[in-house]
Amino acid sequence: MGATVSDTVEVTLRAVGVLAAFLVLPLLVGQTEHKVMAHMQGRLGPMYAGGFHGWAQLVADGVKFVQKEDITPAAADKRVFRFAPAVALVPYLVALAAIPLSPDVVAADLPASAVFVLAVTAVGILGTLMAGWASANKYSLLGAMRAAAQLLSYELPMVLAVASVCLAAGSLSLSGIAAAWSPWWLIFQLPGAIVFLVAAVAELQRPPFDMPVADSEIVFGAYTEYTGLRFAFFLLSEYAGIVVMSLLFAVLYLGGWHGLLSDQLGWLWTLLKGFCIAVVVIWLRVAWPRLREDQLQRLAWLVLVPLALAQLALTGVWVVTTA
């Protein structure tokens, strides 16, 4: 009986911790994006909300979204339309639970957590497809079709890049991969790291791969008909995706919790490394113009897939020769 109560308390605390991180980290990334973009483009941006550098602007935006009217188009498939934001958001919450911040700080230490995270994050695209199909809007449908084509193109190089790291570590567990990590991987797995980062940005539909929500072409893609809190959920899913992909990159390619005083501050090292990758994702939005659809597909199939296959082959040769 005592063990059952203890297990229940532990599971509850882990779930609350993941939920707290899921609510705080995306907002931190969003605030960082506002300020980093403002300074990179030589403009101040919101400076007054909260009294110091506009720190409460995102809170004000959240209040604004809550107050806006929730409109469902008359011709829409109402059930699918209303359910789509949750389908886009929840997979990142589930994925975050399987990413270890340190050997002891992980909500669900799964034996094949690398595969689990990739599989779960791929489900998020269903929310975009549902939103585009259910909106009864041609721009929404075009955006959803673009998003689907983009996912199919960039999921393959991402999986191949992760497979290379798993092969090098001899484990499908993220904790096992981080434990087997060596500084030599910074050079050895560099091509795969570049492939993973580019593919992650594309899967998140972030600039320069934001063709599914290209405002100058298709209004706002699959999210055109959304208002209020449901629209905010789609925006939150984007920032949650940045958090998940950045932490996953930190664990796979930067050693996760490896650093000074890793026994005590390992979780902090993982968060700091993930934050640096999130800043890189933000920088890409500022620095690169939007690609065309044909350039998007050409980059995926003619550059990233061959590069990922070459990295996987190189890793296989290394593993066999050093066994």
From TrEMBL:
Reactions performed catalytically: a quinone + NADH + 5 H(+)(in) = a quinol + NAD(+) + 4 H(+)(out)
EC assignment: 7.1.1.-
Subcellular location: Cell membrane; Membrane
Record-level GO BP terms: aerobic respiration
Pfam families: NADHdh
Any single Gene Ontology cellular-component annotation: plasma membrane
Keywords, alphabetical: Cell membrane, Membrane, NAD, Oxidoreductase, Quinone, Translocase, Transmembrane, Transmembrane helix, Ubiquinone
Record field: transmembrane: 12-30, 83-102, 114-136, 156-178, 184-202, 231-254, 266-287, 299-320
Membrane topology label: Multi-pass membrane protein
Superkingdom in the source lineage: Bacteria
Gene Ontology terms for molecular function: NADH dehydrogenase activity; oxidoreductase activity, acting on NAD(P)H, quinone or similar compound as acceptor; quinone binding
Top-level class of the enzyme under EC nomenclature: translocase
Record family assignment: Belongs to the complex I subunit 1 family.
Subunit description: NDH-1 is composed of 14 different subunits. Subunits NuoA, H, J, K, L, M, N constitute the membrane sector of the complex.
NCBIfam families to which the protein is assigned, alphabetical: PRK06076.1-2 (NF004741)
Function: NDH-1 shuttles electrons from NADH, via FMN and iron-sulfur (Fe-S) centers, to quinones in the respiratory chain. The immediate electron acceptor for the enzyme in this species is believed to be ubiquinone. Couples the redox reaction to proton translocation (for every two electrons transferred, four hydrogen ions are translocated across the cytoplasmic membrane), and thus conserves the redox energy in a proton gradient. This subunit may bind ubiquinone.
Protein name in UniProt: NADH-quinone oxidoreductase subunit H
Organism of derivation: Pedococcus bigeumensis
Gene: nuoH
